[in-house]
């Protein structure tokens, strides 16, 4: 599908609107030039046209590749330039960058890496022998996995021609060779220890052999889910709210951080969680990350929620309502803080005197709505009970003292308590 611009028109203003312009392939400089096309010289127009044609060809190529990988065209006319399942403003080229990767079809010997390895034989041989030593603590399953990895790496290096490459490199370096194939009778490259760790050797001398594209199924599934989740909150387009090159997943994460259009608030409501379930001074986004289900865009792990509530309840019993001072020690969640305290109770567990004065930050209650007239005493009791819903760690006497109910108080109607 071509997105080329017809420069023969008298005016090009608005030729590429927000829905048509790819945030991944069109840069600001190009758009600025496009809007002043009539002021450019013939050579500048020709260069701009050539760039536009290159971008259009890139878009066509990306569309062809993604359709072959199973993605579909969007039948919605408003999103005609984007593949199905992606937000407005995402072109085929953008989508390809987001959900595909180069397909690894094997390994190939890298001449420079091989040269360095051969030139550093003594150090490399020691490392290879060290890595090849069996781990005495390894379980049978781990030993089997190690053997399988060794066999796979060896097969890939032999298929990549490690013997021929070593032989050629030894000749190039002027080192006398002892074999005709570059492999010793034991089947290892000439000059290397026969107990070679093939996995380590592969890391030292080879690079992945890439051919074509393949879908990153996990990234695609998460992108679809993130698009759907954002759309449910009214976020249907990435451009122009995010800068060029932003992926759907990055935009989704940013939406959560900003609570854009209440997207994170809705996730809290759907899962029946509130900030009262979390330690003091924790932001909504920080709270969400504590209970996030990483496999689902916008998902919440119910098991994590239950564990967090239980662990935080234990912390509150010993007067810890704010975990900020534990973050530098790795205490980013109530569970981790509990582990830190249990490991060094003499340092972190508060004394009884500290428990008696320790209280969480006061939370301002939501407005209290009372239908009909009430007496001053009744209003006082309702206010205290309402405040306690938001500050359960405070006693009624402490709340009364905070509101000054132990003194004469003038109500709005002029009634004195």
Structure summary:
This protein has 417 residues and is mostly helical. It is 49% helix and 5% strand. Among the domains are: 110-213, no CATH class; 229-357, no CATH class; 362-417, no CATH class.
Description of the structure:
By secondary structure, the protein is mostly helical. Among the domains are: 104 residues, no CATH class; 129 residues, no CATH class; 56 residues, no CATH class. Helices cover 49% and strands 5% of the residues. It contains 18 helices and two strands. Helix 13 crosses helix 14. The termini are far apart. The N terminus and C terminus are likely disordered.
List keywords for this structure.
mainly alpha; two-stranded antiparallel sheet; 18 helices
Number of distinct helices: 18
- Number of DSSP-assigned strands: 2
Describe the largest sheet: 2 strands, antiparallel
Question: How would you spell out the order of helices and strands?
Answer: HHHEHHHHHEHHHHHHHHHH
Please identify the structural class as seen in this structure. Answer: mainly alpha
Give the CA-CA distance, first to last residue: 77 Å
Q: What is the radius of gyration computed over CA atoms, rounded to a whole number of angstroms? A: 33 Å
Mean pLDDT figure: 80
What oligomerization state is this entry in? single chain
* Content of β-strand: under 5%
Side-by-side strand order of the widest sheet? 1-2
Helix content: 40-55%
Q: List unreliable stretches of 5+ residues.
A: 1-28, 407-417
Globally, the shape reads: flat
